[in-house]
């Protein structure tokens, strides 16, 4: 196989099926989150309610994250992922019923709102297992020598779902309403379930099956905190997502600041993911492994600048451009972080490491949404976004100064070692 083959991972049939499953789930989840954001803000007209959506999901996701990682390392991965998709399908179908116009018209507004929060809360339990399971199954489908290329394609598909899900959500709300938009989401979860059945069961590589759960969790946490490169990468990304969570306030910008309605909201929501998607397809031909540390620092710094510009803008297309460029930088960050995790994590610890990563990075999306909603209530929407971007810049500069080893990080040696193992 050619050393710089940009399609190396795509030559494995199971990996292509895996990409379809991942796309369908990311598409469904991101579309659902946007539809629920729109519905909740339409009901309450309160930016804090958008933060509460994130908080409802992040509480169970963080609470169960470490335990979920232990379970993933102990169980067969495909079967566990099937159960996660089934759980999401049940929740999306519940939201479909809850947004039925007859229920909206007859039930008290507060009851509808609390039921939405409850289903989002249940979704947090599913997400606690979903991320680590996908991360672990990934490593069982392709050989280690194509991990960097596979990580690029996997991240690209993630971003494609993140592009099309929010974009279609904005347009479908306008075309067919919230209720039938939820029906589309349920349909995509079924597509993921059916395709996953085509992948056979995979072996469990953990040699410590039946290990005490607390000992297992301690081992996973100790590994992450002792591996400075992994810890530094996920901490940086966590801070950027936590304080740069302007996306959570997009309904406010679309409705009250830029006055662009649901279609403009869809464009704003999709802009960052379009930028990230372009970055990821480009990186398949131009890998980011050389000087990865400096590239990661530079990408997150650029992300912070874009968030500040977006917060200050009162022109729709300037806002779209700022969000697009934030996605470009975020795409670079995501590829480098995923490559670090795949290359530096032992097979038997993937579930636990992915769980710690989800606590740091994945859940910071929801914590960032809550932080943005809360600071928007206290400071005003524009000030909250600018504050978040500024905190991101401060964090990147501080990390670059205090961690010269991270600045010098280069992943080419790791890739060469894995090629020798193959």
Would you mind describing this structure in some detail?
Helix content is 82%, strand content 0%. It is mainly α and 422 residues long. The protein has a single domain (9-201, 212-421), classed as MFS general substrate transporter like domains (Growth Hormone, Chain: A, Up-down Bundle), CATH 1.20.1250.20. The longest helix is centred in the first third of the chain and has 32 residues, at 13-44. The chain is globular. The mean pLDDT is 80.
Using brief descriptors, characterize the structure shown.
globular, 422 residues, Growth Hormone, Chain: A
CATH fold-level name: Growth Hormone, Chain: A
Task: Quote the average pLDDT.
Answer: 80
Largest sheet: none
Write down the secondary-structure element order. Answer: HHHHHHHHHHHHHHHHH
Transmembrane segments: 15-36, 48-68, 80-99, 111-138, 150-171, 177-197, 229-254, 266-288, 300-325, 384-406
GO cellular component, one term: plasma membrane
Subcellular location: Cell membrane
GO molecular function, one term: transmembrane transporter activity
Question: Short summary of the structure?
Answer:
The protein is mainly alpha-helical and 422 residues long.
Write the layout of secondary structure elements.
Layout: H1 13-44, H2 47-74, H3 77-98, H4 101-106, H5 109-139, H6 147-175, H7 177-196, H8 213-226, H9 228-243, H10 250-257, H11 261-283, H12 292-312, H13 316-344, H14 350-379, H15 381-402, H16 404-407, H17 412-421
């Amino acid at each position: 196989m050619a050393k710089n083959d940009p399609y190396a991972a795509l030559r494995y049939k199971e990996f292509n099926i895996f990409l379809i499953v991942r796309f369908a789930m990311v598409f469904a989840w991101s579309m659902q989150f946007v539809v629920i954001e729109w519905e909740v803000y339409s009901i309450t007209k309160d930016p804090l309610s958008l933060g509460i959506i994130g908080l409802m999901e992040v509480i169970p996701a963080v609470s169960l994250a470490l335990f979920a990682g232990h379970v993933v390392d102990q169980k067969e991965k495909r079967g566990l992922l099937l159960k996660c998709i089934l759980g999401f399908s049940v929740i999306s179908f519940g939201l479909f019923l809850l947004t039925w116009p007859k229920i909206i018209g007859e039930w008290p507004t507060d009851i509808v709102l609390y039921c939405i929060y409850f289903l989002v809360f249940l979704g947090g339990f599913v997400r606690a297992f979903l991320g680590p399971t996908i991360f672990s199954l990934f490593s069982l489908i392709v050989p280690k020598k194509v991990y960097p290329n596979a990580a690029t394609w996997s991240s690209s598909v993630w971003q494609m779902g993140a592009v099309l899900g929010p974009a279609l959500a904005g347009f479908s709300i306008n075309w067919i309403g919230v209720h039938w938009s939820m029906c589309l989401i349920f349909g995509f979860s079924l597509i993921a379930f059916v395709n996953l059945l085509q992948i056979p069961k995979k072996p469990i590589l953990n040699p410590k099956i039946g290990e005490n759960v607390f000992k297992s969790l301690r081992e996973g946490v100790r590994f992450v905190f002792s591996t400075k490169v992994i810890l530094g990468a996920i901490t940086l990304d966590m801070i950027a997502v936590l304080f740069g969570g302007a996306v959570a306030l997009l309904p406010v910008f679309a409705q009250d600041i830029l006055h662009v309605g649901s279609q403009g909201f869809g464009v704003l929501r999709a802009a960052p993911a379009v930028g990230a998607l372009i970055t990821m397809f480009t990186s398949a031909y131009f890998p980011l492994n050389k000087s990865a540390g400096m590239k990661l620092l530079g990408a997150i710094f650029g992300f912070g600048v874009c968030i500040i510009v977006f917060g200050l803008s009162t022109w729709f297309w300037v806002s779209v451009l700022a969000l697009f460029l934030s996605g470009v930088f975020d795409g670079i960050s995501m590829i480098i972080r995923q490559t670090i995790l795949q290359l530096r994590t032992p097979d038997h610890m993937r579930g636990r490491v992915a769980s710690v990563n989800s606590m740091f990075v994945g859940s910071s999306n929801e914590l960032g949404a809550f932080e943005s909603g809360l600071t928007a209530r206290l400071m005003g929407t524009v000030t909250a976004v600018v504050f978040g971007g500024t905190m991101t810049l401060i964090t990147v500069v501080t990390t670059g100064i205090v961690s010269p080893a991270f600045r010098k990080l280069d992943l080419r040696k790791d890739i060469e070692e894995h090629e020798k193992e193959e």
